[in-house]
Amino acid sequence: MLLSSTSTGIKLDGNGYVDVVIAISSRVSQDNTLIDKIKDMVTEGSLYLFEALDKKVYFKEATILVPPQWNSKDFTRARTESFEKARIRIDNPNPAYGDEPYTNQYGECGAEGEYIHFTPNFFQTNALTKPYRSKGRVLVHEWAHLRWGVYDEYSEKKPFYYSNGHIEATRCSKNIKGQFYEDSAETPCRTDPQTSLPTKDCKFFPNKYQNTRSSIMFLPSLDSGSRILRLQQAATHFLQNIIEDQSNVGMVTFSSDASTLSFLTTIDSDTTRERLIALLPKTAAGSTHMCKGLSLSLEVLKKDDGDVIGDEIFFLTDGEATDDLNSCVPNAINSGAIIHTIALGDKADKALREMADKTVTSHAAQADVPPIIVKTRMDQKFSDGTKPMIVFAEVSQNYKPVINAEVWATLEPESGPAQMLQLLDNGAGVVEMNPSKPLVSPESLITGSFRRTATGESFEVILKSTTPPNFPPNRITDLNADIQEDIVLLSWTAPGEDLDHGTAKSYKIKWSLDFKMLQSNFSNAHEVNISGISPQEAGSVEQRSFHLSFPIQNSTTLYFVVQSEDKENVKSQISNIAQASKIIPHPEPTQKTEARKRKIEALKGAYAHSNRILVRGLTSQQKVTSASLKASWVLAKHNKPFTDAEVFKEMMVTVLSVV
């Protein structure tokens, strides 16, 4: 058993990535062809990655974890892998994205993602891979999100923009040539009269034959043993890759009896890791007394602070207990420790699952309703107070975010009262994530009233001085700009005095005609006079409008940034750069307009003339019909032939009176 906290590690062995786990969800029905397609994707992706990064890295080793209910003589027992810890997952579609692959990312650019999500249907069709040319290139595209924390270099929100008076597609690099069409049949794009940019149905189609470089993040389709051995391998994997630095780790082994391999040891170097690995047992003997192992592991964990609340046990076993687990599992559950169980066999005692379920996970109240899951993590394990620590909480149901939930984080120090921190999903400090994926039919969330508790990770804060750190206002990341006539409109979420708490002292708004200049030389950019404007409380929506010192010409593109400052004159990082263009649709030439008016008048006249002819024709016909009917009535009234002089006279008078 390994006693510590966990996070999944992928590492480089030489130039090759190893410990890459691709896990298939237990909700996916068995399909052995899916395994072959995964292998093909990784092989293609490895070759593409190797070429794209100048032969520097490739996929050296990947493990496919299949659900326990899948059966085949070709499968071997899992070691330490699990679906929840896998960085590449294959599961039913996320209702928000359908079968579109995506990477779940919390942090800003440069921070590693959480996991890549593929669906079984993604591997069964080629429709979703057309922009990439192969599934291997899709893998590399998503791998860049996961491993390096980069973002896509295209935009669903702003697919087109103005540059030096020309319409450009958002792409990388700008040297990629292509055409604007609404579909592959080359239907010309229409223009939005409000922005003079192509409408939302317009797409950029790169020219098929061209010699240029393309970013992986834009368009990568352009060229440019025995059970003891498995337990030992699992423990080695944990110690080498999963256990975080500065964690305290102890090891206990058990068979007919239990013994301590190592008391709690701080992981402070690779040497320490290798020393612990060397202590792992090499042979197996005796029976499997799990209760003895559990009891001794709890005693080892108590050695640091006297209790085990929040401590974690990773219980690795073949799952077949010699003793009665029911005699010790209740005590383990009530201890407050979090117990992860990994059974390397299909005969695992049910008490192992109960122990893990009650200390680690939660289940749905109804079998047909997906459970609401809460996951937490910290952005760092150690802080000296110079950098703020961020608490993340993800509340979801069937991969869809549960919004407007009331979420509180309780931070418990070694001494002193616990600190309560409310986590908000109102957009304050929001990070612009990957472009939105294609919309699919909405699926309603069935939540109702619920309560969930998740035990987070431990972390350590050792301040360099006794003076509390003074953090700057947090960086504004949602600045948006617009130009209406000669008025500039800006909006953003207000930062705080310290990060996202309190109220900042002031703002500084700057602009430039040159994006790169504003990005690299903020101090020399033009400043907007906003004296007298005071920031609002953190989290509020700021909306500011102003005139510049000159009339803004048509087709002009301006770039804006905002920086905030607190009462100690500590400045925030500059915001994201917002772009706005003044576009006034060109009126039609006067000569063309007059000709159009004349043509319309001529058409109106022709219509009126034809209508009059039609009306006259209808009126004459009506009179003839009426006279004929009245003449017939006169003949019928007298019951005499047409040759009778008196009757003929009366009939003619009647006809003439009508016509």
TrEMBL record:
GO terms for cellular component: plasma membrane. It comes from the Eukaryota. Residues 201-395 form the VWFA domain. InterPro entries: CLCA_N, CLCR, Ig-like_fold, VWF_A, vWFA_dom_sf. It holds the Pfam family CLCA. This is Epithelial chloride channel-like protein.
